[in-house]
Amino acid sequence: MLYVQRPLLRLHREARRLASGDLGHRVAVRTRGETGRIAGALESLRHQLHGDTAESESEPRTYRAPGVLRGPRAVVVCCAALIVAWGVALPLLTSFAVPDRVPAQAEQDQKYRTQAAADRIRRTLSESVADLSSIARLTAGGGTRVDEVLDDELTGHDGWSSLYLVDAAGKMVAHAGKTSLDIDRKAALAGVKPGAPAVLQLNRSGKVPAAAAAVPVGDGTRRLVTELRADVFNGVLTRSGIGRSWLVDARGRIIASNQGFIAFSSPPKPGANTLTATAAITSAPPARPAAQSSARTRDTVAVDTLGWRVVTHKPVAWLRLAGYETARHAELAGLLALAAALLGLGWLWLTVLRPLRALDRSATALAAGDRTTVIYPQHHDEVGSVARSLELIRQRLAAADRKFPATADGQ
Q1: Of 393, 405, 403, the residue nearest 47 (C-alpha)
Q2: Could you tell me which of 259, 144, 253, 241 has the C-alpha nearest to residue 206?
Q3: How far is residue 154's CA from residue 156's CA, in Å, rounded to a whole number?
Q4: pTM above the 0.85 mark?
């Protein structure tokens, strides 16, 4: 206000005064930069309109120092630098409020969440085995209705991609749903113990991880197999507060995650300030062994041979602690300050500084004797008002040159 708008308002008043014909007083603007040079040009034009051949010795001199910021540009750059410095210094100053040590309760909570995710994976697999065992009793008799039974049962299980019946040689005798073509199912089923339910990993390479559950049918020579959808575990791993979580196989390769991942790649290494936890997918110890059925025991033990684990990483900065909340708010305030400085500087450059520099060049050229270049106002503001007044002054000087050409030529 003091160094940008007030000099422009004074220039606006002085330029209108000269354009209206009031030449009795000198231009009363004392500033530097573009506004100072425009004031000097107005004073020179006042003398030319008055008919003086030379300017008075008391006229203020203006110097153009290349590479030096003066006037409105210097003020704007200084203000933007202060805002940027504040936005950068604020997060640095609030970083001292971050605790040096992670509370033990936070580490324990991360372990609990990881174990809960592992339990959810185990329950998903155990429920698939239990449901598959119920369907196996419907297909034990064989017959022509097996395909219809498989189609009906597959429709009621969103987490299953296919359901099929295989004989002792591994040949598929009934099928429902879609199966992957690049999986060696015979080799995967060959390692399953006969007469016992199993959960198995069908592939250890490729683009899409595949897992299946298998239960014996009838006398145990045939097996009923269901392939689980590729994204069935991704939703199970997605829980609030768990951070980044991965389901890895016995070789430590990713087969599911709550974020994007490359199949069978290794999980990223945790950073220095990251909470980590690991939980194995194993059968849960029964709360009351006497009350647990043998069928349920078989369902839960089926997952023990997988060797799967849930790995979680949670950056310490994600914890909802007072110090970290303060640091996050400070970073947000700093980013907003930087954005405000950038927008404000861009707006001032487009609406004030650039038109003011163009007006400086036009006023200097007019004071030097250029009577042919028309001065167009770019905006309806103080800078535009000064431009309109300079155009009126140019027209008066051009008319005077046409009326007294000899005087204009200095003859």
Answers
A1: 393
A2: 253
A3: 5
A4: no
